[in-house]
């Protein structure tokens, strides 16, 4: 205790250090977190510690993030056996925002840069006012798009790109069937496929047939009236995000040596693939900043446009999850942060 006398220099410095430390650790931001697994109502808009950039980090002021089905699967605890995130937890695999500050060793970005990307949730999710990312997890956001549209792209865009071109290795003139073609991944996949000169078939309900045509889909298939395996034959690849019966029926549409790329577990059966003389793979989309940059270039050229089904303020994340859980969203749901 130093009451009753002036602190000496050492004590004064110690006090200032303690005050500084407290101020630092007390820095908070608004975020949506969940403290226990459950339904949409476990999502709480509240104060949370503001992340601090360390060496190699970029602190991004989040303008918008988006909702992906994995968000509500994690929130419900469905993926706990796969990855158990520490609670309370901040979701948000997409970000579009502005660089607030950078840690030492960051050369590619500076405060004020508009960026978009896919944060690593093991460190920091984007249902928040701030998120920290590595340089390798972001790229310049498309200048032509606002933050709402940019935030709709990263996770689904990277997944669609990697399914078509990394996993399936498709090239111009080849044929691909994209399931759930009006959804987040699907509507990106259709656009990328057309840009690269592929012939593309896509499945959706009757109400989305006209939309698939607008996207450039060569063969829209109404799953309510048509069995896709009756109209699709000898294709080079299937992008399969439904599982179950849709996966079982998808083997038949591939030509010998073709490939089924699954986006959801369980992994496709190697036995089934062998029996049909085709290949199978399952992917978990990876963040690749060169692909984000390429997609941004395509968006700036007006060749890629994310479809926005709804925009909710961040505090209404629960409502956004309820909408996503219908599994009939066209394009993307975005959460606006500022
Ligand atoms: N592995 C990965 O890295 C990865 C990445 C992203 C997503 N995923 C997974 O892939 C799946 C799709 O993701 P997403 O973001 O595209 O989901 P999404 O946007 O929620 O998909 C919604 C779409 O699914 C369509 N749909 C529903 N039932 C259908 C059916 N029986 N046949 C064809 N289409 C149907 C709907 O079209 P209608 O309204 O016309 O029915 C709707 O447009 C999810 O399970 C997600 O978790 C995996």
Explain this structure to me?
This protein is α/β, with parallel strands linked by helices and 338 residues long. The protein has eleven helices and 16 strands. It has helices at 9-26, 69-75, 147-151, 154-167, 184-195, 209-215, 228-231, 244-250, 270-275, 289-300, 317-324, and strands at residues 28-34, 43-49, 57-67, 89-90, 95-102, 114-117, 130-134, 138-140, 175-178, 199-204, 219-222, 235-240, 254-262, 279-282, 308-313, 332-336. Strands 3, 5, 6, 7, 8, 15 and 16 form a seven-stranded mixed sheet that branches. Strands 11-10-9-12-13-14 form a six-stranded parallel sheet, sandwiched between helices. Helix 9 links the parallel strand 13 (254-262) and strand 14 (279-282).
Helix content: 25-40%
How many strands, which pairing sense, and closed or not: the largest β-sheet? 7 strands, mixed
Number of strands: 16
Task: Write the H/E string, N to C.
Answer: HEEEHEEEEEHHEHEHEHEHEHEHEHE
Give the overall average pLDDT: 94
Shape: globular
Class from helix and strand fractions: alpha/beta
Task: Furnish the topology, listing elements before pairings.
Layout: H1 9-26, E1 28-34, E2 43-49, E3 57-67, H2 69-75, E4 89-90, E5 95-102, E6 114-117, E7 130-134, E8 138-140, H3 147-151, H4 154-167, E9 175-178, H5 184-195, E10 199-204, H6 209-215, E11 219-222, H7 228-231, E12 235-240, H8 244-250, E13 254-262, H9 270-275, E14 279-282, H10 289-300, E15 308-313, H11 317-324, E16 332-336
Parallel strand pairs: 9-10, 9-12, 10-11, 12-13, 13-14, 15-16
Antiparallel strand pairs: 1-2, 1-4, 3-5, 3-7, 3-16, 5-6, 6-8
Helix pairs in contact: 4-5
């Amino acid at each position: 205790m130093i009451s009753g006398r002036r602190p000496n220099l050492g004590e004064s410095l110690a006090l200032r250090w303690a005050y500084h430390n407290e101020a630092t650790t007390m820095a908070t931001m608004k975020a949506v977190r969940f403290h226990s697994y459950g339904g949409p109502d476990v999502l709480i808009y509240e104060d949370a510690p503001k992340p601090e950039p360390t060496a190699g980090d970029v602190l991004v002021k989040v303008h918008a993030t988006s909702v992906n089905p994995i968000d509500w699967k994690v929130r419900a605890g469905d993926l706990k056996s796969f990855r158990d995130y520490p609670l309370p937890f901040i979701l948000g695999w997409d970000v579009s925002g502005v660089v607030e500050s950078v840690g030492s060793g960051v050369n590619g970005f500076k405060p004020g840069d508009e960026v978009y990307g896919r944060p690593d949730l093991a460190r920091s999710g984007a249902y928040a006012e701030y998120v920290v990312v590595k340089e390798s997890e972001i790229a310049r956001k498309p200048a032509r798009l606002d933050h709402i549209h940019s935030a709709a792209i990263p996770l689904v865009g990277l997944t669609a790109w990697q399914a078509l071109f990394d996993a399936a290795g498709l090239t111009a003139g080849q044929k691909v069937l994209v399931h759930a073609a009006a959804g987040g991944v699907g509507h990106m996949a259709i656009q990328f496929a057309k840009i690269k000169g592929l012939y593309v078939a896509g499945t959706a309900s009757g109400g989305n047939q006209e939309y698939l045509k607008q996207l450039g889909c060569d063969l829209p298939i109404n799953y309510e009236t048509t069995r896709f395996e009756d109209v699709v034959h000898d294709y080079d690849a299937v992008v399969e995000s439904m599982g179950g019966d849709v996966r079982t029926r998808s083997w038949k549409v591939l030509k010998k040596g073709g490939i089924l790329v699954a986006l959801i577990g369980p992994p496709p059966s190697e036995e089934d693939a062998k029996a049909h003389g085709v290949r199978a793979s399952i992917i978990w989309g990876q963040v690749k900043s060169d692909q984000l940059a390429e997609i941004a270039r395509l968006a700036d050229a007006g060749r890629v446009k994310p479809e926005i089904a709804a925009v909710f303020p961040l505090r209404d994340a629960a409502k956004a999850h309820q909408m996503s859980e219908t599994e009939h969203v066209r394009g993307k749901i975005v959460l606006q942060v500022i």
